[in-house]
Amino acid sequence: MQVVTRYLDGVPLVTVFVLEVGGVKVAVDPGPAALYSPLDVDVVFCTHIHLDHCGSAGHLGKPTYVHERYTRHVVDPSRLYEASRSVLGVFAEKFGRPLPNDKVVGVADGARLLDAFDAVHTPGHAPHHVMYYYRDNKILFAGDGAGVHIPELGVVIPTTPPPFRLDLYLQSLDKLRGLDVEVVCYPHYSCTRNVDLLRRHREQVETWVEVLRGRLDLAIEDALRLLAKEDENVAKIMNVGGLYLDFYLRFSVLGFMEYLRQSASSS
Ligand SMILES: [Zn+2]
After folding, report:
1. Opening angle at CA 114, ends 143 and 16, nearest 5
2. What pTM did the predictor assign?
3. Pick the CATH number of 2-198 from 3.40.50.2300, 3.90.1570.10, 3.10.450.50, 3.60.15.10
4. 2 C-alpha to ligand 1 centroid (Å)
5. Is the four-CA dihedral 65, 71, 76, 78 of positive or negative sign?
6. Residue of 103, 143, 150, 104 lying closest to 127 (CA atoms)
7. How far apart are CA 41 and CA 205, in angstroms?
8. Nearest in space to 12 (alpha carbons), one of 173, 149, 165
9. What stretch of H or E contains 264?
10. How far is residue 14's CA from residue 29's CA, in Å, rounded to a whole number?
11. Can you tell me the distance from the alpha carbon of 221 to that of 156, in angstroms, rounded to the nearest whole number?
12. Ligand 1 center to residue 53 CA distance, Å?
């Protein structure tokens, strides 16, 4: 498998995995439009249509697999881009505007792709989130459905920007228990054989809920400080700062707090 890391401001943003299956070269999550560079591939699998993952698929001009209910936002990405700008602000602009892409293939939950991959609809991070399980090699391409894995820090943290759905996210993680996974490949930023990270990430999410529930009036900075006391992954990221803190961690806490506020007000 070929691994191509796309850097933003000197920091790894997305890792693209390219593998050949039955003579077909597949790229998983080609990265954002602004960081496009040509890839020698035949098809593109997007775990989800967010700009940092699927934004350059139109530039590649190859058949692009995305969740079946969201193909229109890949064909015409204008609404997706504006919605991303309203949530992510300057980061959406740094990721760049996707090109329209009419070579879109809709993926249904449970679909068998290229006679080699199983699609696992795993909403929560986003409703259009799909993981791809490569059965022969027992590799799970996890997208953003199991957190961000930063190997040099030995850290996993959620990436759960608003509108985050905690209930669906946990159900999605539970769905993975039925898979025989030996390798997890995270687009942020690498593959690992430490598949226990999936279980530990679920526990981490439960810890975050315990810490934040009942403290939903806190400012993000105060919420981060509380989380750092209970979750050493958060403490490590806060020490390092930069993109990891500003992009993932702050937006993830915001996603949790907004979800918990909404569920508190509707119960
Ligand atoms: Zn992402």
Report:
1. 35
2. 0.96
3. 3.60.15.10
4. 19
5. negative
6. 143
7. 35
8. 149
9. helix 250-265
10. 8
11. 19
12. 6
Q: How many CB atoms are located within 10 Å of the residue 186 CB?
A: 27
Q: Quote the ligand 1 centre to 52 CA distance (angstroms).
A: 6
In the reported structure, the alpha carbon of residue 267 is separated from the centroid of ligand 1 by a whole-number distance in angstroms of 31
Q: What does the chain come to in residues? A: 267
- List the pLDDT tens digit at each of the 267 positions of the chain: 999 999 998 888 999 999 999 999 999 999 999 999 999 999 999 999 999 999 999 999 999 999 999 999 999 999 999 999 998 899 999 999 999 999 999 999 999 999 999 999 999 999 999 999 999 999 999 999 999 999 999 999 999 999 999 999 999 999 999 999 999 999 999 999 999 999 999 999 999 999 999 999 999 999 999 999 999 999 999 999 988 998 899 999 999 999 999 999 887
